[in-house]
Amino acid sequence: MSDSETLVRRPKSRRECAEIAKKRLKIDFGVSASVSAGVRSSTDSGSSREGSCDRGSSCTASDKKCCLELSLNCQNGSGMECGGKVPTQSRNGSSDGSTNGNGGAGRSFHHVSAGEHFCQACYEEVSKPGRPWNDSFVKWKLEWMEDSRRSPTLRQYVADQLMPFWTQCTKCGKWRHLHRSVHLTNDSHKKFTCPSASHHADIKPCDVPEDPRVDPASKREWSQTLSIPPLLHNSPALHYLRSDYFHDEVGMSPTNADFSGKVPDSELREFLQPFNIPHEGTIALCLRPDVMEYDEIVQFPEYCSEAIMYLALRNLIAALWNMNPFEYLTLDKCIPYLICRGLARVWFASELDRVLQFLTVKGVVNYGILDPVKTPIVGPEYS
Ligand SMILES: [Zn+2]
Ligand SMILES: [Zn+2]
Ligand SMILES: [Zn+2]
In what ranges is there compositional bias, type Low complexity (predicted)? Predict the structure, then answer.
């Protein structure tokens, strides 16, 4: 058995004990239909969340614009009504299950979230062998499976590789989306300003109204409309977690797993290990990166059934703090490391504040002797 196989095999036992830990938490909390009612159940296979616009979101025909524009026949902006005509090509037997067969609403468009869909023509550019995007989809699947427990579905590929990044203008704070081919990095995030839009040539770039999809995406309940949980790219948590966990189980994308940010010096690392690395023994106050703790569930019961998005944020915050425990960790310091495609980034950014406040109160971050900050991190609900 090769080294790489050993590395891949090890986390599977982690996963089993994570399942046991999660079950125990649910039993202890008596989590029943009441808590999980609004939350789709989580399963190992992403495919169970695949589907069209029937996931607690009420997508209207005008919501359905293709966010990919891969195909020359892309139905973007065609104003197709719900349940409009399906392109006549037969489906190619993809096991994705992404098109519902009932001929109802959403048949021509694949739902990613409220506000994000892609059309059947673009779907086929990826799914059909010989089409331009199929090769990279196949390569991506292989890479994905090395560090993931979730099935490499087409929808996951779209969310991970094809959807546009969204970022905030450093001047006006409005959210804008980049072209699909433009990658958002920690640095480009810090420099971004509104681009001049050709169809708004007469007004200043920052005066162009924000996309109307941004506001709903910054609401907590928007996450319920996602067909698959988004995963963070190149999270700083990678620095600590390395190959000990399946990336998708700790909120990180398996195929965007390069973290090259500032790392603590070696002396500091001896003492600071935010996460429990199973074969290295238990260290007091370490977090399990793949399981929510009791108090976290009490505070964030909505994540009880589907913890990935919470874990992604919490692990990112804990990693950043451990990399520099001599300065207050603020929202502004976290945001540049919060990278993922799609409107999910808007949602993550607004939820980050709540998680950072909680972790500060819990004593996971922002403890010790620190220079005071001007604006309090912890809101009135905690004081
Ligand atoms: Zn939809
Ligand atoms: Zn399209
Ligand atoms: Zn602007």
Answer: 38-50, 90-99
Torsion of CA 335, 340, 341, 347, to 10 degrees: -60
Q: In whole angstroms, give the CA distance from residue 27 to residue 17.
A: 15
- In which element (H, E) is residue 167 found? strand 166-168
What is the spatial distance between Cα 112 and Cα 156, in angstroms, rounded to a whole number?
Answer: 9
Number of other residues whose CB lies within 10 A of the CB of residue 100: 17
- Residue 287 Cα to ligand 3 middle (Å): 38
How far is residue 60's CA from residue 222's CA, in Å, rounded to a whole number?
15
pLDDT band at 44 (very low <50, low <70, confident <90, very high): very low
- Asked whether the predicted pLDDT for residue 162 surpasses 60, the reply is yes
Distance 165 CA to ligand 3 centre (A): 16
Q: What is the pLDDT of residues 352-364, one digit of tens each?
A: 999 999 999 999 9
Closest ligand by atom to 197 CA: 3
Distance from the alpha carbon of residue 369 to the mean position of ligand 2, in angstroms: 53
- The Å distance, Cα 311 to ligand 1 centre, comes to 25
The predicted-structure confidence for 171-207, as pLDDT tens digits, reads as follows: 999 999 999 889 998 888 888 999 887 676 788 999 9
- Which is it for the CA torsion 174, 81, 221, 329, positive or negative? negative
Please give the domain boundaries of the chain with CATH numbers for all domains: 3-41+226-382 (1.10.10.10)
